[in-house]
Amino acid sequence: MRKAVRIFLYTLGGLLALVVVAVLAVFAVLRTEAGRDWLAATISDAASTPGQMELRIGAIDGPLPGSIGVRDLQVADADGVWLTLERARLDWDPLALFAGRVAVDLIDVDGVHVRRLPAGGPPPAEEQPTDFTLPSVPVDIVVRRLAVDDVRLDEPVAGMPVTLRAEGQLAAAEAGEIRTDLVVERTDGSAGRLALNATMEPGDRTIDLEAVLTEPEGGLIARTLAVPGLPPVTVRLTGGGPIDNVVAGTLTAAMGDDLGADLEYRVAYSPENIGFALTGKARVAALVPEPHRAVASGGFGIDLAAALAGQTVTLQRLSVASDAVSLTAEGTAALDAGTLDMQVGVGLKQPELIALYAPEVSAEEVALQAHVTGSFDRPRLHLEAEAGRVALPAATVEGLTATVEAEPQKPLSEGLAVSFRAVALATRLVPAQAPEAAGPMFLDVAGTADMEASRVTIERLALSHPLAKAEGSAVATLEPFGLEAKLALDAPSLAPLSVLAGMPVAGAAQVTVDATVANGGQSVDATVDGTVRNLQLPTVPAAARCAATRSRPRVRSTTTTIRWAAAR
Question: For residues 6 and 2, what is the distance between their CA atoms, to the nearest angstrom?
């Protein structure tokens, strides 16, 4: 028995010695130039996918394993090299692993050059449910110093050439606190700076963070947002709390006097859904060009609440309001099914703003309500509009309500082609030149619009007003402009035309119009056929005599036929 035990122990010791010798041999080989070249080539080949992402390491130096250096690293895609790195070095204590620690004295990176963003790769794999478990580490990790110098971002990446440096540290205890401090600064003559302090407790599932970003006048953020005057920028984000309950914090930003935000946010997590809320005020007038800046006067108050459950996004409420306009929204969107059911409302608090876009139009008590349903690619629209009063050059409309229905005839990805119907009703329409003809108005229009074909078809038009009733249809091409239209007009009384004619007019009329416009408006053909019944007009000589005799001779006609044709 003792002999068997001795044989087993000798065998085990021999195997352990063989493993130690093999490891030492590997380290010995890797400490040679040829061994390091083999390691660099092996890593490059393993990390590369030809035609998509290719990694090339120029050299690996040591002494391994306590100091690992990489030089002349390149990352390329199908369009060529987009990232290069001159050198990087990791100084650490491998023997600390036997004590359950990863002890890194230094991570030093220098000469990072990002020329552009990488080209798009293959379609992403199907997304898995989000896991909000905080990371934990099996051993203690300490990175005493992280130093990244001479990071160059070219214009395609940042909108302008930028040079950065970063320095920080990381400490992570086994099943305990993870703490990181990081500072990123610009080194190209600008004083831009980002400072990040974050602490995570995997055991208590809590997080606490603070990030402060500052840039002087003419900085990257102001240039990216095209803020007039390129003012200095200050952004501060704070937050904390248990991630499986509520994480709350603030976001404040200032970019000059007319651009900034003071917001509070809340993120609530449960196994069933993720909730998000945002409240506060944002000032965006600096981003709105004149003369539209009045729309953003006073800033926008924001109240947002939304939730994500699986693949369904629920917008519980959205309210955005300035001194001039307001917007509300609520609804759901199923991301997996590609469908939505959303309601959006728009109110105009300062109707005089309409004059900015239509100087001859004024309106009061204007409100819009839209309901969008269906698939993302073929949404159906139901729009309701109200206005207490609308003043146009030709007429004034009071008590206006309108409904618009629109539905795509094909997927939006294939072009914009919709069928539509619009119905408008006014309690009172007052023609500017014939106010005595005021009365209710009804309008019904139905047709199709195909933007790819530059064609709008009015299949039915019906208008009713005490002044006249009209029915018609039309086909219009937009480029070049062309029109084929037919209109039937029935005026039961010509008396309202007396103001336009400058003399008493009586009778009734029925008129049809056929018109064709071609060659961008250069060619016009029109034919008017009509019948006038019981026409009554004063004759000019008799009118002159009536001034002395006070008599009222008139021209009377039982039926008069009108036919007129014109061409250009």
Answer: 6
